[in-house]
Structure formats: C-alpha cells, structure tokens
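ARCHIVE RECORD
Type: protein–small molecule complex
Small molecule: SKM
Source of inputs: curated submission
Record status: active
Notes field left blank by submitter.
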Amino acid sequence: MDGRAVAPAAGTVLNALATGRGSAFAIDLETTATVELTTDGEVVGTVAERPEADTGLIERCAELVLEEYAEDAGLAGPVGARVRTDSEIPMAAGLKSSSAAANATALAALDALEITDAVDRIDACRLGVRAARDAGVTATGAFDDASASMLGGVTVTDNASDELLAREEVDWEALVYTPPEQAFSADADVAACERVAPLAALVEELALEGRYGEAMTVNGFAFCGALEFPTGPLLEALPDATGVSLSGTGPSYVAVGDRATLEAVRERWADRDGTTRLVATRTDGTRTT
Ligand SMILES: Nc1ncnc2c1ncn2[C@@H]1O[C@H](COP(=O)(O)OP(=O)(O)OP(=O)(O)O)[C@@H](O)[C@H]1O
Ligand SMILES: O=C(O)C1=C[C@@H](O)[C@@H](O)[C@H](O)C1
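STRUCTURE (tokenized, with ligand):
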C-alpha cells in the first residue's frame, strides 16, 4: 500500500522563540512525501537528491503514525515503511522545510493506511510536531509553522500547548530571498530571542488584530537584532511592502504585498548573493495527491 501527500512551505509573521507564541503563513513552495508500507517492521527514510540529509524527522513521523493508527487501519503483525521526500524548499533556510516534510509524511502515511478522512488535519499536524520534538529539529515544536503548512492561510498559535489561536486566509504575493547559508532552528540562540519578548508580545497583539504586515515588520527588526542577521533586506523592502521579516530562524527573508511593489523589491534583493523568488500565498495547505 502506497500513500502520497504534498505540503507547502511557510513564511514567518511572529517567531515563537521569544514567548512560545508564533504566527506563520503558507507559501507556494512544496515538499512531496511518498510512503510505502512494508511487513519488515522497519521505517527507512530517504531525501531525494540529498543523500547527506538527516532522515530522523520523517522516519519518526512515519513511526508515530504507524504506532498510533496501523491497528485501527486493520493491519496486524509488524508494519514498516519506506518514506521518501522530494522538495523544492531549501532545507534549514527559514522556510519551514521541516514542518512541510513532517506534514507531507504524516498525511502520506495516513493515505497509505487508507484512513486520511478518519483523522483531523490538525491532529495529523500535532503528530508531526511530536516527531519534530523527538527528532530534535525544533526549539518550540514549531506548531505555528506546522499549522500554517497543514491548514494553509495565516495561523497564530501557542507552541507551548500546541493550540491554534487564530487562522485566516490572506491573498498576498510573497517575495522570498534566500542567502546561500543554512541556519538550523535547533541551533538558534533562544536566550537572545527571549530578550525581545516585549516586542514579540506586541507582534502577537498586531497579528491577533489581523494587522499581519505591521506584525511581520516589527518581528523582522526584533529577530534580526536577536539572531544577528542584517537589517539591510528589511530596509530595502520598506516603506512599500505590506510587511517584511526575517523568516523563521533565518537566513531567508520574506516580504508580502502587491506584485508591482514586490517586483521593485526583487530588483534590489537581486543584487545580493543567493536566490530571490516571487511566490503566491497558499490557502489550501497539505493534501494527498
Ligand atoms: N525535505 C525534507 N525531508 C526530510 N527531512 C527534512 C526535509 N526538510 C527538512 N527536514 C528535516 O528538518 C531539519 C531542518 O529543520 P530546520 O527547522 O532547521 O529547518 P527549517 O524548517 O527549514 O527552518 P525554519 O524552522 O527556520 O523555517 C533537517 O535537518 C531534516 O531533519
Ligand atoms: O523551531 C521552532 O520552534 C521554530 C522555528 C522557527 O521557524 C520559528 O519561526 C518558529 O516560530 C518556531
């Protein structure tokens, strides 16, 4: 039995490393996961075109789905899985590659068990967050990123309790700049982020009022300061972009707004090393294919 699912990346409105509360929105860059069930009881993961990538997250995610649901799906005896991801989201770039990989794997595993409709999306998402904590790839669990990728739209969450505080569908274009470096969330300086907690509380207030653009921009300056990323890309997008921020724990930056504004920002960001992409925001989240 085989299953397959596709999950989108996300950009940041509020980084949760300061207060445990975070906010993110889905964007149109995707990770596909395929899960093939086996009877050998082993779970083995591979990442297409990245033989050196750490497969712990997707393996733990498939294991948790099998532990939780294989019996309900009517499977007896040892059940294993071969999991494979294929992704256009750069890894450890701040664009929630880990959340997309976990969500796509969780839904593909449920698809392989033929029980996708019996499990709430948000529960499948929480299972991916558990896997991320177990695999040690996250600071807070990143339920903000994972919920945006699973449900689409913008979400605001409490990552301490994995609670969804708000979700809304937005219709922006997003411009994504990714420098040629990686920054793993598990290595981020949480103590430095906690110093900007008063600003994070303000960003949360703005986000819960639906003022996502302003929220993002305040988040951008606060977390560029805390995590020591340059503010140049933020200034190059202002004052015209609706919002601009460091995404996740960096090194990518995401600006939102209308297409004409973002085209102008793109020209400025194009002078920097790395890649700049104009993408749509996504309201539909993770889905089986
Ligand atoms: N396509 C993928 N397939 C399998 N595992 C992946 C994939 N993408 C990311 N991961 C897992 O997630 C880890 C990177 O997680 P990390 O949170 O640092 O990156 P990110 O999610 O891109 O960044 P951020 O949380 O700042 O947006 C990788 O080491 C790997 O374990
Ligand atoms: O690992 C984590 O807990 C997180 C990583 C970043 O993406 C943050 O933006 C997110 O809010 C939390």
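CURATOR ANNOTATION: The mean pLDDT is 97.
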